[in-house]
């Protein structure tokens, strides 16, 4: 099995960037700066979802499946700054050249990482290889790279299952629960900024990690559907996931397992 890297990000408003772009008063609090941006967005677009380049990456959670190993971890503030978080993610792509798997990664996660990576001077040659790189297998990337929407080196499950039609997209939480997986637990993306302001950074990280595992479980089910796994191999993979998560023993994983029928 080739290495598989499932990922998900959580973001917060780029308060420093908003101050710089709009020359805001230094006496305004971070919360006030963000609220001004939300109000402006609501007035112009009818919602408060900020443009992607103004979303600061607070967490990237990853699940790496390589060989017999399965590992889940996060790159997160305050332990690392945004530049280090993004650089280390792309260094993982550089090291393993994995298939990367996401839910709406093409529509949100990766564009955010592109813009924020540019802001911080992040280097990611393997990720951006389009068949003209210096790697021995670079020519293969002309036909299957991380950037092409219809390529599988980045598998955006939401986009593929919807046949690349936004109106056909479904929430990961609901699909996971329909299959029998736990789905989202304790939080959703709309509550991340509130949790961040309250200092609940560990809760954000835990939420992001469970989203990554839900994405991986749905991807395993997809591999069964497309005939890549037999029923027995699917059952073995699900059993391995349960066993590896149980070994971690952290409260959010105990809660996840308890909710998994």
Give the termini separation: 27 Å
**Helical residues, percent:** 40-55%
Low-confidence segments, ≥5 residues, pLDDT <50?
none
Q: Biggest sheet: strands, sense, closure?
A: 5 strands, mixed
Roughly what fraction of the amino acids lie in strands?
5-15%
Describe the strand arrangement of the main beta sheet, using strand numbers: 3-2-1-4-5
User: Radius of gyration, rounded?
Assistant: 19 Å
Mean pLDDT: 96
Choose one word for the global shape: globular
- Helix/strand structural class: alpha/beta
Note the total helix count. Answer: 10
Number of domains: 1
CATH architecture: 2-Layer Sandwich
At the first level of CATH, the class is Alpha Beta
Can you offer a commentary on this structure?
Helices cover 48% and strands 14% of the residues. A five-stranded mixed β-sheet has the order 3-2-1-4-5, with helices on both faces. It is an alpha/beta fold. The mean pLDDT is 96. The chain contains ten helices and five strands. It has one domain (4-259): Ribonuclease H-like superfamily/Ribonuclease H (Nucleotidyltransferase, domain 5, 2-Layer Sandwich), CATH 3.30.420.10. The chain is globular, with a radius of gyration of 19 Å.
List descriptors.
5-stranded mixed beta sheet; 261 residues; globular; 10 helices; RNaseH-like_sf; Nucleotidyltransferase, domain 5; Propable PolB; alpha/beta
């Amino acid at each position: 099995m080739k290495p598989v890297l499932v990922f998900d990000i959580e973001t917060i408003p780029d308060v420093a960037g908003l101050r710089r772009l709009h020359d805001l008063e230094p006496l305004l609090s971070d919360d006030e700066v963000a609220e001004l941006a939300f109000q402006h967005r609501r007035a112009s677009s009818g919602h408060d979802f900020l443009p992607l380049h103004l979303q600061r990456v607070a967490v990237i959670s990853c699940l790496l499946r390589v060989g017999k190993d399965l590992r889940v971890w996060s790159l997160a503030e305050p332990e690392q700054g945004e530049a280090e978080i993004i650089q280390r993610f792309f260094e993982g792509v550089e090291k393993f050249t994995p298939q990367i798997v996401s839910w709406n990664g093409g529509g949100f996660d990766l564009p955010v990482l592109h813009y924020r990576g540019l802001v911080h001077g992040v280097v990611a040659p393997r990720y951006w290889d389009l068949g003209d790189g210096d790697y021995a297998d670079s020519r293969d990337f002309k036909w299957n790279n991380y950037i092409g929407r219809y390529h599988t080196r980045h598998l955006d499950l939401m986009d593929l299952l919807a046949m690349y039609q936004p109106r056909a997209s479904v929430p990961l939480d609901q699909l996971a629960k329909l299959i029998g997986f736990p789905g989202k637990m304790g939080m959703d993306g709309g509550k991340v900024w509130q949790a961040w302001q309250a200092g609940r950074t560990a809760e954000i990280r835990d939420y992001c990690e469970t989203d990554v595992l839900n994405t991986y479980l749905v991807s395993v089910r997809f591999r069964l559907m497309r005939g890549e796994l037999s029923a027995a191999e699917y059952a073995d993979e699900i059993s391995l996931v349960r066993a590896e998560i149980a070994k971690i023993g952290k409260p959010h994983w105990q809660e996840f397992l308890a909710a998994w029928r």
